[in-house]
Amino acid sequence: MSVLAIHPGAYYHIETLEAPSYRHYFDRLMRPEDLPSVELSDYQVLFIPCRTPADRMAPHAAQLRGYLDQGGTIVATGETVWETFLPAIHFTPQPTNWWWWLTEGADLGVRISAPGHSLFEHLGQDDLAWHLHGWFDPPEGAEVLAVNEEGKPILYVDEVTTAGRMVITSLDPCFHHGSHFMPATTRFLDGFLPWMRKELDKEKSE
To answer: DSSP string of 94-153?
Structure first.
């Protein structure tokens, strides 16, 4: 088992990566600046949590691409400006309605688009709905797992751009879990992290 997590050091990163609830899902924690000192191919998964500062990741874009080209898996969650350090990311921001859930009967519009995917053995649709920051235009052949109210992708798996795999989402569960705000985000991590260890922490199929 080998999951390396980037640890930028904010309070919500500490709560997500170091607290007892989830610490056991990560084998090693590392500051972005220390990436050049590690051989990424020793790890099956590189986890990049919400709101990791892009200027701390961008200098390592070539190293990350090399890791993907060797078959590695990168999981990157919301608000990280992914396109500065990962390939083939095309993101469109959308206005965020922070308080939609205060309206009786409100529906954020998030929908699971691949219900047969193994992730949804661990997560339900309500576990993906807290608010939205934007959507992606994934490359042709990527598997879209969830969409926004307009059917635009917000969570997808890209196994076509490189020999590796990228799991990309605009959802930001680590930030809200670590801020103790929005229970759905904790439910998301409760399902997503076990899935990550079970399904991603192994050799990528050829």
So the answer is: ----TTGGGSTT-----EES-TTSGGGGT--GGGG-S---EEE-PPTT-EEEEE-TTS-E
CA 74 to CA 60: how far, in whole Å?
A: 13
Task: Decide: helix, strand or coil at residue 6.
Answer: strand
Residue that the structure tokens 């196994």 belong to = 159
At residue 97, what is the residue type? Answer: N
**Cα gap 206→202, rounded to integer Å:** 12
Q: How far is CA 71 from the centre of its chain?
A: 18
The Cα–Cα gap between 20 and 104 comes to: 35
pLDDT tens, per residue, the chain with 206 residues: 599 999 999 999 999 999 999 999 999 999 999 999 999 999 999 999 999 999 999 999 999 999 999 999 999 999 999 999 999 999 999 887 777 776 777 778 899 999 999 999 999 999 998 989 999 999 999 999 999 999 999 999 999 999 999 999 999 999 999 999 889 999 999 999 999 999 987 765 54
CA 17 from centre of chain: 14
188, with CB counted inside 10 A (0-12, 13-18, 19+), is buried
